[in-house]
Design brief:
Elements (H helix, E strand, L loop, with lengths): L5 H19 L3 H7 L1 H28 L3 H19 L24 H50 L1 H18 L5 H18 L5 E2 H16 L6 E9 L5 E2 L5 H10 L7 E10 L2 E9 L12 H13 L4 E8 L2 E9 L8
Parallel strand pairs: 2-4
Antiparallel strand pairs: 1-3, 4-5, 5-7, 6-7
Amino acid sequence: MNNRNLPIFIDVIFCVILLPLMIMFLPVERWLTHHTFFVLIFVVWLYVVYFLHRKITVPLIFSGKKYLAALLILVFTVILTWLVSGLDWHGDFLRHHRPAHQRHFLMLHPREQAVWFLFFVVSTFSFAVGLLTELYHQMLEKKELEQEKSKAELALYKAQINPHFLFNTLNTLYGLLITGSEKAEQAFMQFTGMMKYMYSKTSADFIPVSDEAEYIRQYIDLQKLRLNGHTAVSFESEEGDDEAVIAPMLLITFVENAFKYGVSSHIDSRIDIWLSSGDGRISFSVRNRIFPESLSGKGEGIGIANCRKRLSLIYPGAHSLKITDSDGVFAVNLTIMYKKVNPMK
């Protein structure tokens, strides 16, 4: 059942089951036989009271600064109930001229007591349902606003991926060009392939982990073209689940970061990257040495901050990201509890 149909479901339950059951406790059969007009007026009025408070009075209270209108409606229903309770058995208004000492609730005719009792029960239930409905609608609206905000934020962070990737990759190509490297042409070919991947995959919400692994492998091959013999790169990928999916270009940020800060032109270093999937879990880790001369400032870069926010939006409560910087070694350990989603949908 659609969550938005819940108030309608409650209305149907009340009108079709609860209210008829309450009315059946009264001597309705005898009343219908001798006082049909009164019974019809009474039952119709109870339904009017329920929907009047449920649809108008309670929403007016929640709308703010309309308490007077809500109070007037409440007073109106009380007055009309008083008139209905005073109807003669045959429909004439003849019962409200009794002496004051006979107007106490316990001194009223049983029929009048039944009218007032059901009026208070129906009014109370109507206010309760109306209150819960308004709170429920406010909760749904708040949830929808939060979802729309999350979508907007995710779209913003996702849009920042491409410029970040282009900036880092073009720096690599520029370095090959100014040094006159023979690998420049090969690098441009690999860059073209990566661009095709980027624009064909980043529009999807999720892609197979194997596709993301292949993209990382291509990026590493491109970066190796500019490296000298001082940097060793290891990438191990174990895709044990063909149905494992991940948000596109989520892991590349950490790989880019390793090549940005873990490479030296004259000191030996090593970059280790490992990716695996299976049993509903994606595990990813990167380890690299940090060279002080490559650091341009303190704190996390835009890429990692962006990635943290994407993870919190896409996998709230379903991921663990641990980043450590100890003894000159930068380590990233990421675990994602993914949902098996068909990437073709």
